[in-house]
Design a protein that fits this description.
Blueprint lengths: L1 H63 L2 H11 L5 E8 L4 E4 L21 E5 L3 E10 L2 E11 L1 H48 L16 H24 L5 H10 L6 E4 L6 E5 L2 E5 L4 H13 L2 E5 L5 H4 L5 E4 L6 E6 L3 H21 L9 H21 L6 E5 L6 H8 L4 E5 L7 H4 L5 H8 L4 E4 L2 H14 L3 E3 L4 E4 L2 E7 L9 H4 L5 H11 L7 E8 L6 H14 L7 E8 L6 H21 L7 E4 L5 H10 L2 E4 L9 H8 L6 E5 L12 E3 L4 H12 L3 H17 L2 H27 L1
Parallel strand pairs: 6-9, 6-12, 9-11, 12-13, 13-14, 14-17, 18-19, 18-21, 19-20, 21-22, 22-23
Antiparallel strand pairs: 1-2, 1-5, 3-4, 4-5, 7-8, 10-11, 15-16, 16-17
Helix pairs in contact: 1-3, 3-4, 3-22, 5-6, 5-22, 8-9, 9-10, 12-13, 15-18, 16-17, 16-20
Bound molecules: GDP-alpha-D-glucose (GDG).
GDP-alpha-D-glucose binds next to helix 6, strand 18, strand 19, helix 18 and helix 19.
Length: 742
């Protein structure tokens, strides 16, 4: 830092010194010349005075013919060290008298030379000056008095003066440079401190930060401009070119070139299971995995997850790593092992019995146990260890996924302060009143504030989070820009609606044609070719509104009996968290209600509700989506919901109707769906009736519009927007670091 400052100052001082040298070079001879001329004029005047004073004596001596007395007078007068001698010349040029020391070069012939300066005849070799002074008595010129001055004294003085002047100029220059340096140093420090404070988002108004008052208005202006630029940049992103894997890869290879990406998620994307037929690799039913996997493929990073499969340990190397996808490796999966107790406390307990119902506000009471909380803290710390171990530099990009890791961002931030931590909260964030019932609300919020970016699906969830921060922790909030400053660190709270991978053309070319899929699915369930299918695909979770869906369907059959025997509800309910009582109770209840509806409206050859409570392979789901007439998404509260987007993507025939809960994040984007309140049974039954009766043209119109939205708002856009913001913030912190260095 010191060397840089010195170099900077030298760069500034060198030209200043040059300017001073030039001034001295030009001005000294001029000053010298001027002073000589002044001195010559002075001497001429002095000569005139001497001549005037002597004119009477000269006249008398001449009239008396006393030339000897005149010479004696001249000798006395010429004792002055500056007078070299005197001579008296007649008007005819004859020498009448002279002092002994008169230089040889001076004689009365000079009297004939015309004078340029009155009284001044000439300067001889620069060393003497001769003054000619006529002696006039009563108007009659009698003679000319030559007074010879010694100029060498003047030249010596001039040299002395030059020396003093030079010294003065050097002294002045040095003084000015010193003052300039001090002023520059002070203002540079002030500017740097000011700029740093602005970039840190502190502004210049922190009382403990030595404010620079003169910079305050400028700082405000600067910050405002920066924010406007950033906002404009983000707005531009909304309307720009479509996102696809190539664009995402380009972003990673250019703006984030060489930066390591580490994902932390509870769920692993590939589970190795031991079966009778050997080890089998299973893909979990998870919206998160569906969304994050394509990003990892594009950037070849490391995914850290809980190794939950029975054959997981057999598949990893000595560092608990395995390359995935199996057979065509594109990125690394790093498994973290948990004991059954840890899994029980952290995953089933705190995350799924506590945070899940707390954030979904789905009328299931959250359970908070001290032991679960302890396990949650310990497991978060374990995963933070894994992140630090996997990091190849001190500033990796860490993508933290979901409510299982609320404490991890602050833990990683503490050990890798320069890391860019992007946390995505896949579920809703409730209002502060609801969140406030959690005994560890402050710790959770502070943990999340270790993130560089905290992402939610919708602006409402983000706003709820900021209000929660406002209510429970000490932080400075810039509402307009979604920035929270806590513990000297900024977190950008923003919304990034998640989505799915839009299928490529070569992929859709391999799909079973719709007519064939319709026929296959109907045949598999013993339904006639014309039978209508309402489809539900969910994890078997109480937040998904499966019970409300059954009630709506039951109401449809009661209110519009023409559909009885014509339409069935085919519900896929993938097993999930079945270890928990709440889930077991819920799943039993669904089975009971299903049985009741089937008993009430079913008849031989007609099963109103077909409940498929088992895991399905992705290609099976695809066939179901393509075979359905209506897809039902009736979540009571859902961060986004990917099933509705998968349904839309599957319908390249532009047929099929989507009925969508207004409480799913997806309802914000998919306005062409039939939007319903799942708690309103009558409204839902009417929507089902409307969907079943919708003409193919009306279906096409809505589906085409929905497809356009999902194609554009795909998962690459979700990741791309987050990573673009990441790149922007990393650039910003690099500039900030450079400023700190200077
Ligand atoms: C969370 C948020 C948010 C379902 N059954 C099977 C199966 N699935 C797949 C679906 C879909 C995924 O699971 C479910 O995604 P969702 O988005 O509906 O919901 P969550 O799992 O609750 O996910 C949610 C999501 O995170 C992403 O941020 O949208 O709001 O709650 O992809 O197709 N997949 C397979 N077999 C099944 O039986 N293979």
């Amino acid at each position: 830092m010191r060397i840089k400052t010195l170099r900077l100052q030298l760069r500034f001082l060198a030209p200043l010194a040059l300017v001073f040298a030039a001034v001295a070079y030009v001005s000294l001879p001029l000053i010298d010349n001027l002073m000589l001329r002044w001195a010559a004029r002075d001497l001429a005047l002095r000569g005139t005075l001497v001549a005037n004073a002597m004119s009477d004596s000269v006249a008398r001596s001449l009239s008396e013919g006393d030339l000897a007395g005149l010479t004696a007078l001249f000798e006395r007068t010429a004792t002055d060290e500056r007078l070299l001698g005197m001579a008296l010349c007649g008007t005819d040029g004859a020498l009448l008298s002279q002092t002994a020391r008169l230089p040889e070069s001076v004689d009365c012939a000079l009297v004939q030379t015309p004078a340029e300066t009155p009284g001044l005849l000439s300067l001889h070799s620069g060393a003497v000056q001769v003054g000619r002074h006529p002696i006039v008595v009563e108007g009659v010129p009698l003679a000319d008095l030559l007074v010879v001055h010694d100029m060498s004294i003047l030249q010596r003085r001039s040299a002395d003066t030059q020396g003093y002047l030079l010294l003065l100029l050097v002294g002045l220059g040095a003084l000015m440079s010193l003052i300039t340096m001090v002023v520059a140093q002070l203002s540079w420090r002030g500017w740097v401190a000011g700029a740093r404070a602005i970039l840190r988002g502190e502004g210049l108004i922190r009382p403990f930060d030595r404010p620079v008052p003169e910079l305050a208005p400028l700082a405000e202006e600067l910050r405002e401009r920066l924010r406007e630029l950033e906002d404009g940049y983000r707005r531009l992103q909304v309307a720009d070119a479509p996102w696809d894997p190539a664009r995402l890869r380009a972003l990673l290879n250019t703006q984030l070139r060489g930066d390591q990406v580490i994902v932390v998620a509870n769920r692993e994307p590939y589970i190795h299971e031991r079966t009778d037929a050997g080890v089998r690799v299973r893909r979990p039913a998870s919206g998160l995995v569906t969304a994050v996997e394509p990003v990892m493929r594009a950037c070849s990073g490391t995914w850290i997850a809980h190794g939950s499969g029975s054959a997981d340990r057999d598949a990893v190397d000595a560092h608990d790593r395995v390359s995935v996808p199996p057979g065509q490796p594109e990125y690394t999966l790093r498994r973290v092992w948990l004991t059954p107790e840890e899994e029980q406390g952290y995953y089933y307990g705190f995350a799924n019995e506590g945070l899940w119902p707390l954030c979904h506000v789905a009328h299931v009471r959250p359970v908070f146990r001290e032991s679960d909380w302890r396990a949650y803290c310990e497991v978060n710390a374990r995963f933070a260890d894994a992140v630090v171990a996997e990091a190849k530099s001190d500033d990796p990009i860490v993508l933290v996924q979901d409510y299982h890791f609320a404490l991890l961002p602050a833990m990683v931030r503490e050990r890798l302060p320069r890391a860019t931590i992007i946390t995505f909260w896949h579920i809703p964030w409730p209002n502060p009143e609801s969140f406030g019932i959690c005994p560890w609300r402050e710790a959770l919020v502070e943990g999340l504030l270790g993130s560089t970016i905290l992402g939610f699906h919708t602006p409402t969830h983000g706003r709820n989070f900021i209000e929660t921060v406002d209510r429970f922790v000490e932080a400075r909030i810039e509402h307009e820009h979604g920035i929270v400053r806590h513990a000297g660190h900024d977190t950008l709270v923003a919304n990034y609606p998640i989505s799915i991978r839009w299928p490529a053309q070569q992929e859709t070319a391999g799909w079973t044609p719709v007519a064939e899929a319709r026929a296959n699915v109907r045949q598999a369930h013993g339904l006639s070719a014309q039978h209508r299918i309402l489809l539900g695909v969910d994890r078997f979770d109480y937040t998904k509104g499966i019970l409300e869906r059954l009630h709506a369907f039951e109401r449809l059959l009661a209110k519009y009996p023409e559909w009885v025997g014509e339409v069935s509800l085919l519900q896929v309910a993938a097993p999930t968290r079945s270890e928990l009582d709440e889930y077991q109770d819920f799943q039993h209840r669904i089975h009971r209600v299903t049985a009741r509806i089937n008993a009430r409206h079913g008849r031989p050859g007609y099963v109103p509700v077909i409940l498929l409570a088992q895991h399905h392979e992705p290609h099976q789901l695809l066939d179901l989506y393509r075979a359905a007439d209506v897809c039902l998404v009736t979540s009571l509260h859902d961060g986004m919901n990917l099933v509705c987007k998968e349904f839309v993507a599957a319908r390249d025939d532009e047929q099929g109707v989507l009925v969508l809960s207004r409480f799913a994040g997806a309802a914000r984007e998919l306005a062409e769906a039939l939007i319903v309140n799942p708690y309103h049974v009558e409204e839902c039954a009417d929507a089902l009736h409307q969907a079943l009766g919708m003409s193919p043209d009306a279906q096409r119109e809505r589906m085409a519009s929905l497809r356009m939205v999902v194609r554009e708002h795909n998962v690459y856009r979700w990741a791309g927007r987050m990573l673009s913001d990441t790149a922007r913030l990393r650039l910003r912190s690099r500039i900030e670091a450079r400023l700190k260095e200077s």
